[in-house]
Model the fold of this input.
Amino acid sequence: MRTRQLQSLLRNTKRNLVEFKELGGYSEIYKYSIENNTEFWEKLARSRLDWKEDFTQVSNSCFKNGSISWFADGKLNVFDNCVTRHLPDRADQPALIYEKDEPGTEEFVSYAQLHSLVNRFANVLKSKGVKKGDRVAIYYPVSPLGVAAMLACAKIGAVHSVVFAGFSADALRQRIIDADCRVVICADGTYRGGRYINLKSVVDQAIENLDLVETVLVGTRNPEAQKLTTGKDVDLDQALESASDNCESEPMNAEDPLFLLYTSGSTGKPKGLVHSQAGYLLYAAVTTSAVFDCQPGDRFGCVADIGWITGHTYTVYGPLVNGAVSLLFESVPSYPDPGRYWATVEKYNLTQFYGAPTAYRSLLRHSNEFIEKYDRSSLKRIGSVGEPINTEAWEWLHHTVGSSKVRIADTWWQTETGGNMITPVPCDEGAAFKPGSAQRPFYGIEPVLKSADGKTVEGNSVDGALCIAKPWPGIARTIHGDHERFRNVYLNVFDDVYTTGDGAHRDVDGEYTITGRMDDVINVSGHRLGTAEVEDCLAQLEFISEAAVVGIPEETKGEVPYAFIILKEGVIDSSEHKLLASQHVAKVIAKFAVPQDTIIVDGLPKTRSGKIMRRILRKLAASSVQTFAEIAPELGDISTLAEPEVVEEIFLKKCQS
Ligand code: WT7
Done:
């Protein structure tokens, strides 16, 4: 049975990495990519990208020194690679399918139209004083104008910083200030599940009394909305209409920054990770084609928002650089009913579908009718990203959605890595089906496992901190404005390797299963959140003296934050405080960061040196037992705590709440 399944998969897909096909299959190409790493990437850089000036250096990278550089003396333009060079073959082919919230209201944008739109957009940016190297904030939902905003920056060498249009005004303001953006691009709003969400009012709040921002370019989503509200606002649609569509693309150095993208860490403020022009684009190009078998003209359905790295790499750059048609999905999986994804697959004959386990888990509870009534036979590949995928969701994707024919790509990677790192690659052969396991390193990627004392864990059937031994073109180069932090967080944890922050198990076959974060970062519906960020935010409230936040498992979202707070002396314990705390987190960070519950306690379990024992809080938060005696054995030795008795007190408070 299994062999038959594999044979049918083989027939359905083409071999990838044609450059190396004479070497054989995955194992041979992988071996070559590690042993001849520079030659491997050099060949791909020449065959996959168009250069304005050829490079002579391939890699000059050293994790120890904190310097990473690929193809450094080459010049290219990312927009030309993603759009202009496809015009001779596919000017009239759609580049983007805009599947708007309301079914049946879709729009298509051809490569020729996208080319003209981006040229005009680039001229608008220039007319507002944006130059090569300037940072531009984009607070735009997934849409042709959002994508065009990114590409217009790429065209003129400005550095885009897309802020997910679900982040709060405070979070947006913090990111605008950190990246020093003088121009903000936004839409009046967006629709999600039939509901209009006003985005412009968030931008207005974010830039209130912020002299730094000179111009806000506002695009139209809802023609009825009042979108021009301040003296800084410019009507983007009008500006685009009157702009010329003639614009020279800026030849960019391979190592110039292409974009910043903020992500949470276990401590401190969000980090603006900086991705490069050439290395990032190459990695996006090669992973999109090899992991997803993406061919020119394929209809690639990555439903991630452009506010996340998945949207950058697999909604925008990866599909376009490969000449595919990219789906822009504005809606939610359940609107108007739980068949929306599969209706969309049928409507456009999508060849790839790439989504998140949290959405898959929410859909699999509904009747199979919502799947079976649509034709999904166009799909070659279904991807999953953002968090570990549980076996039930994997089986459902493969058997129910994919009719036992479609290979599932569980893709492990991070904002920092630029593209897929561990995933059953490629689509053409070999790897056994292993639900819940990301399995194999991508070409050129060499995972190593480290033990707590920094030793490399050898052999199979072992666990360790997941690290990557060799630099690869797609890795982020630095944290905007804080290279020391970049080195400390990623490159100096263990010697000579990139530290991912995740743990992994290497199984008997030498393949990898990700076991989850090893730091205080939690993953809420695929959104990364530092528990310290939520704690800092809660501690800002004048009635809170201390807060501890942990992540606990949740069926659909994967994990949710859970808070314990100590009120300041003299403050009377009331449920209003919980409500105020939730509202404050939503305002300062985002709705997804609001704790599932907030327990008011008198003390926190701390070591004698004052470190909060989150392990204990996690157990308490996640448990559903009724008596302390039942949970006590799970808590381990608590006698070394400064005040062991607080643990039972917290348990009782939780039961009462
Ligand atoms: C963290 C990165 C990569 C784009 C989306 C999230 C977790 C991601 C998987 C997976 C297990 C996964 C890791 C990682 N993660 N994909 N397939 N299996 N865990 O990007 O916000 O940078 O988060 O998400 O913990 O470190 P991100």
Notes: The longest helix spans residues 111-127. Residues 86 and 323 are 6 Å apart (CA to CA). Confidence is low (pLDDT under 50) at residues 1-13.
